[in-house]
Design a protein that fits this description.
Blueprint: H1 2-31, H2 37-40, H3 42-60, H4 64-83, E1 88-95, H5 98-101, E2 113-120, E3 124-132
Antiparallel strand pairs: 1-2, 2-3
Helix pairs in contact: 3-4
Length: about 140
């Protein structure tokens, strides 16, 4: 009688272990790490880096004509570098009476330069108009 109880115990243990293994294998895909997630937000990182580069260019420019030359050069370099990653950068900037508004603070409301950026790859971050100030 004891041998049959031991045999049923072993059979039950193997059955339960097999059942748990099958259930775990069925749900393993739901608990796996999604390593592609950072690549879906790559455009956000690129946009933040472009904004940081523009801010640095503004900060290091001596005056409006210097800023215009620096912005042309920066945007050309950025377009070339970003296109190597498969992202298209479309940009346009406008000076708002840059000489008169050069030292304006963000609280004054009139930025010396307004920049429009569009990044496109699989989806667009577009239509954003960003105001940039020399004094931040």
């Amino acid at each position: 009688m004891a041998a049959k109880k031991a045999q049923m115990f072993v059979v039950t243990a193997i059955f339960l272990a097999t059942t748990l293994f099958v259930i775990q294998q069925a749900f393993i895909t739901y608990s796996a790490l999604d390593i592609s997630s950072p690549y879906r937000t790559k455009q956000l990182y690129v946009l933040n880096n472009v904004i940081n580069s523009v801010n640095e260019t503004i900060r290091t420019s001596a005056d409006c004509p210097d800023l215009e030359r620096n912005m042309d050069e920066l945007l050309d370099v950025l377009k070339d570098d970003i296109s190597k990653e498969g992202i298209v950068l479309d940009s346009d900037y406008v000076f708002n009476d840059c000489v008169a508004n050069w030292n304006n603070l963000p609280s004054s409301g009139i930025p010396p330069m307004r920049l429009s950026l569009r990044l496109s790859e699989t989806y667009d971050i577009s239509g954003n108009v960003l105001d940039f100030y020399h004094n931040q």
